[in-house]
C-alpha cells in the first residue's frame, strides 16, 4: 500500500514537472523573401531574442551549420516535393538523413523532422506515400542510432476537422480514417507528437461573426459572450485552446494507445492585408502573439488535457514578400529582414533571464523608435557620453545583428550603467526605455549583467547545462521520471 501511495505521488509530481519543463514557444523560419539575411545573421537575430526553438521548412545546410553549438532546438522539414521520393525509396530516406541530419548532429541540436506540411489537405494524391516516408525516415534514424533523439511526424491542418466546435464533438474528415489511424499508430509506437497547424485568424474570419474577435485574440470575454462546450461544460477562453482540444477529441476516436501530445507547428496573425482583410492589423498581430506567448508559457494545456503543455511555433520570423496569395500571406513576420521588430513582441521575456537588480534594470532602445533619432543617440553615447562601444564594432561579439536598434541598445546601456549613479538617465530624446530583462545574448554581455550565461524561453533546470540559449527539451521529461521513480522505489524498499 505504501508503495502504491508513493507511486501515486510520483505520478502527480511527474505531471507537474512535465508542465514546468515542457512549455516553450518557438518560431518558424521561411525563406521566400527578397532580402534574406545570411545564415549567420539569422542566428544572431535568434540569439538576440533568446529564441530557443525553431522550425525550418526545409533542411538548409548552410543554416544548419550556422546553428552549430548554439543549443537552439531545430525541427527540420522534408518538403512536399521530397515526400514522394522518400516514401517510395528507403535508400532515398537514408540518404536524406545522412545529408541533412547525421552530418550535423550533435553540434546542431536537431530534435524533430516534419514530413511535408499539410500533405493530406494540399496534395491528397501523395497520401499513399506519406506514412511510408515517415516509416523510412524513422528506420534511417534507427540505423544511425538517432531515433531516441529525433522524432518524426507530419503537420496537419485544422482543415482536416470539418466542424471543430464544439471541441467534444470534433472528428477528422472520415474519408481519411484509414490514413489517419495508421499515422496515429506510428506516432504512438515511436513516441512522437501530433503536429498541428492552427490559425485562430482563419477560424475567426471564416466564422462570419459567430465568434467575437476577443475570443480569437485571447482577450477576456464578457459574461454574455462566454464560449462553452455544451457537452462537457468546459469554458474556452480562446479559440486557440478550442482548436487544440478539438484535435485531441478527434484523435480520441481512434484506438491509439495513450494520449499523443500535440505540438502546434504553426500559428500566428498577419499584421497587414488587402482591402477585404480588415482584421489583419499590426495591433491585432501584436495582441495575438503576445497573448499567445503568455498562454503557452503558463504551462497548462487545454481544458480536456490540462497537464499537457501546448508547445507552439509562431508563424513566422520574417515577412515573406515573395509568397503568392493574398497580402496577408506575406505579412506574418514578427521581424523585418534587418532584425528590427515589426511590433513589440515578448519572445525574450521569461524566467530564464537574469536581472540586474542593483542597477535598477537595463537601458535599451525603444521598439519602433525613429532610426535617425537612434543614430543620433548612438553617436552621442559612443562619443560625448563616453560609452565603451568596442563590442559593437565589426567582428566583435555584439556587432550582430547589425542594426541601429541593437547597437544603440548596447551603447545606451553601457552609458546608463556607468553614469546612473551620478545622474545619468535612460532617455536619449525619448528613444530609450528601461527594462528588468537582461538583454545579453550568446557571447554578447551587456554592462551590468549578473550572469554571463543567458537562458532561453524555458528556464534551464534538472538537466545538463548546454550552450548559451539551450533549454530543457520536453523529450527529457521521461528520463527525469525514470530517475524520480527509481529514487522513490529504492527509498520504499
What does this structure look like?
The protein starts with a helix and ends with a helix. The chain contains 15 helices and 13 strands. The protein has helices at residues 2-22, 39-48, 61-66, 80-88, 90-102, 119-122, 127-143, 177-189, 200-206, 213-216, 239-252, 282-297, 371-382, 404-419, 477-492; strands at 25-29, 53-56, 73-78, 110-115, 151-153, 155-157, 194-197, 227-228, 235-236, 262-267, 312-314, 362-365, 432-435. A 9-stranded parallel sheet has the order 5-4-3-2-1-11-10-7-6. Strands 8-9 form a two-stranded antiparallel ribbon. Strands 12-13 form a two-stranded antiparallel sheet. Helix 4 packs across helix 5. By secondary structure, it is α/β, with parallel strands linked by helices.
Question: Which terms would index this structure?
Answer:
493 residues; alpha/beta; nine-stranded parallel beta sheet; two-stranded antiparallel sheet; 15 helices; 13 strands; disordered C terminus
List the helices and strands and how they pair.
Elements: H1 2-22, E1 25-29, H2 39-48, E2 53-56, H3 61-66, E3 73-78, H4 80-88, H5 90-102, E4 110-115, H6 119-122, H7 127-143, E5 151-153, E6 155-157, H8 177-189, E7 194-197, H9 200-206, H10 213-216, E8 227-228, E9 235-236, H11 239-252, E10 262-267, H12 282-297, E11 312-314, E12 362-365, H13 371-382, H14 404-419, E13 432-435, H15 477-492
Parallel strand pairs: 1-2, 1-11, 2-3, 3-4, 4-5, 6-7, 7-10, 10-11
Antiparallel strand pairs: 8-9, 12-13
Helix pairs in contact: 1-15, 4-5, 4-7, 5-7, 7-8, 13-14
